[in-house]
Design a protein that fits this description.
Layout lengths: L5 H22 L19 H5 L2 H11 L9 H11 L2 H6 L1 H15 L3 H7 L8 H14 L10 H29 L4 H15 L13 H17 L3 H6 L1 H10 L4 E5 L9 H4 L23 H5 L5 E5 L12 H20 L21 H7 L5 H5 L5 E3 L12 E3 L12 H5 L10 H4 L19 E4 L5 H4 L6 H5 L7 E9 L5 E9 L9 H5 L8 E4 L17
Antiparallel strand pairs: 1-2, 3-4, 5-8, 6-7
């Protein structure tokens, strides 16, 4: 195969996998034809890419002491890396593809020595190895916090919670005026566009996520930084790239430099994306090479060639050093105790921290959750949002249910279907226990409880203002209803006696879905609210005494 064709094949591979990732991400959601009240299922889970992610598998095994379903496939990537080097970064990873394109714009904007110096190896590239070491040590102590920096978590979190909602809003703003136009052909065009998009890229509801703007801006800043330094995320930050780089140290495919034909034109370096020094006269840094093949395609004298079983004396090992290794070890050992010092994983944690149905107990949940945001993206009522301080620093960007924005749909278990690591255990609607009802004859299994609803009688209309209101009781989805009403005689401000229905909560039936809080007409501060007390995932949070 001609060497000049290798970069072209790499570009085709990158386009294919980026399109696959975005396609799965678009379709990992409900579509307009699916009803939230019927059996809810996914069309295509983007979880596939997490199953290819060796970093997720290693962290899941270290922190959770087991490999969740599908993650074993990532070992194939490690095996192939031992043969072909960091091909995953250069040929498959969507984040690497975006960085490659940004880096190409950066390279074209520079000339001569400035461009060459920018693509030389720099000592700061070892930062990703320090981050990897710290993350693996943290995983040994039971934390999957390195998921903040996993490239697929970054992509799903940024696209799913920020960029796609913005795209959805823009498409609706474009199509809706066309559909409402009084001009016949314009209205027909708008209808055709809406029909075409609603089953492909348009979400059936307009989602809004807490911190969406911040996550979107942060992602854009990462991309813009690539205009300053070529592929800076891959070279300096990405812990998955560091893991693959460490494994690629033993790969049998390597770059051979022919000093006899090289005239030191430095064209290979001008197109290098990994900062691995493909030029002659210096060792080639195999662990930094992204296998982009640009150097081979750019060399006018065919002085560069990738060969199997090449001379390892020409290869430089990862320049980590003892000091950086100790820094990574110390940081990983110290960061988890520091983050958990005031997070309150026990009784003192935030009472409004409501985890998705099927979630593990909080310590186990944080040992598996990689903060990818998949569960938030697929929630049909946009009830799940990334945390800020509710779960402490360690729980940053992990999912929490905010009933005031949306409630947990009784028949929905999408969050458990898409979770790639088992932080949310996969359950069925029947196992969830909300569909068949709570306490019905023949039902023996206890339903999954997210928390318990409580009333602020000083704000509740029937209790405080002698005003009729049973909205919360009407919205309660369980059967028999967890919210019931009792008639009571009250005296209004004019001295008249009125008979009102005052709502109450039966804690043995309440599952903490948040529908009552969502529907409460007191907009600024609801009179009924849900706390995590009574959640089934935590034995220490129970409030009901049972006879033995």
């Amino acid at each position: 195969m001609a060497r000049s064709r290798l970069p072209l094949l790499r570009r085709i591979s990158q386009v294919f996998f980026l399109a696959l990732f975005l396609g799965l991400l678009f379709f990992t959601s409900l579509r307009p034809s699916e009803s939230a009240s019927s059996d809810i299922h996914l069309r295509a889970p983007v979880r596939l890419f997490f199953e290819w992610d060796p970093l997720v598998a290693v962290v899941n095994a270290l922190a959770g002491h087991a490999l969740y379903r599908g993650l074993l496939w990532s070992l194939l990537i490690l095996v192939q890396t031992m043969f072909f080097g960091r091909f995953f970064c250069g040929w498959i990873c969507p984040m690497g593809t975006l960085q490659q394109w940004i880096g190409s714009w950066h390279s074209e904007s520079k000339r001569g020595k400035q461009r060459i110096d920018s693509n030389r190896y720099r000592r700061w590239q070892t930062g990703k190895y320090v981050l990897l070491i710290a993350g693996l040590v943290a995983a040994l102590t039971g934390s999957a916090a390195i998921g903040w920096f996993d490239p697929f978590s970054l992509l799903v979190r940024s696209f799913g919670l920020a960029l796609l909602p913005a795209f959805n809003f823009a498409m609706r703003a474009l199509v809706m005026p066309l559909e409402q136009s009084q001009v016949g052909w314009v209205k027909m065009t708008g209808g055709l566009l809406h029909t075409a998009m609603k089953n492909t890229v348009l979400d059936f509801r307009q989602p809004h996520f807490a911190q969406g703007l911040f996550l979107g801006v942060l992602f854009v800043l990462v991309l813009v930084a690539g205009l300053r330094v070529t592929r800076i995320w891959c070279r300096a930050i990405c812990p998955l790239g560091a893991l693959l780089g460490a494994v690629s140290r033993w790969s049998i495919l390597g770059l051979h430099k022919d000093p006899a034909s090289c005239d030191k034109c430095n064209r290979c370096l001008m197109h290098c994306q990994g900062g691995d020094d493909p030029i002659g006269g210096v060792p080639w840094r195999k662990s930094e090479c992204l296998m982009c093949m640009n150097c081979v395609g750019a060399c006018p004298h065919s002085s560069l060639e990738f060969k199997f079983f090449r001379n390892e004396k020409e290869v430089a090992s990862p320049d980590i050093g003892r000091r950086r290794t100790i820094t990574g070890l110390a940081a990983g050992a110290a960061v988890v105790p520091l983050m958990r010092a005031n997070t309150g994983l026990g009784k003192s944690r935030n009472e409004r921290l409501l985890r998705p149905p099927g979630s593990l107990d909080e310590p186990d949940f944080l040992s598996r959750c990689i903060r990818c945001g998949e569960c938030m993206k697929v929630c049909p009522n946009t009830a799940l949002h990334p945390t800020l301080t509710e779960a402490g620093l360690e729980g940053l960007w992990s999912p929490t249910l905010i009933p005031r924005i949306g409630y947990c749909e009784p028949s929905c278990v999408l969050c458990s279907e898409v979770c790639p690591t088992g932080a949310i255990w996969q359950i069925t609607p029947k196992e969830k226990g909300w569909v068949v009802g709570v306490g019905q004859p023949g039902q023996t299994a206890q339903p999954v409880r997210l928390g318990t609803a409580f009333y602020d009688r000083g704000r509740c209309l029937p209790w405080a203002l002698a005003t009729e209101c049973i909205v919360c009781e009407e919205w309660c989805p369980v059967s028999p209803k967890a919210i019931y009403v009792q008639e009571a005689q009250v005296i209004d401000s004019t001295g008249n006696v009125k008979t009102l229905k005052q709502p109450r909560v039966d804690p043995s039936r309440c599952v903490g879905c948040g529908a009552c809080e969502y529907a409460c007409p007191l907009q600024e501060h609801p009179a009924v609210y849900v706390t995590s007390i009574g959640e089934s995932r935590s034995p220490s949070a129970q409030i009901l005494l049972s006879r033995k």
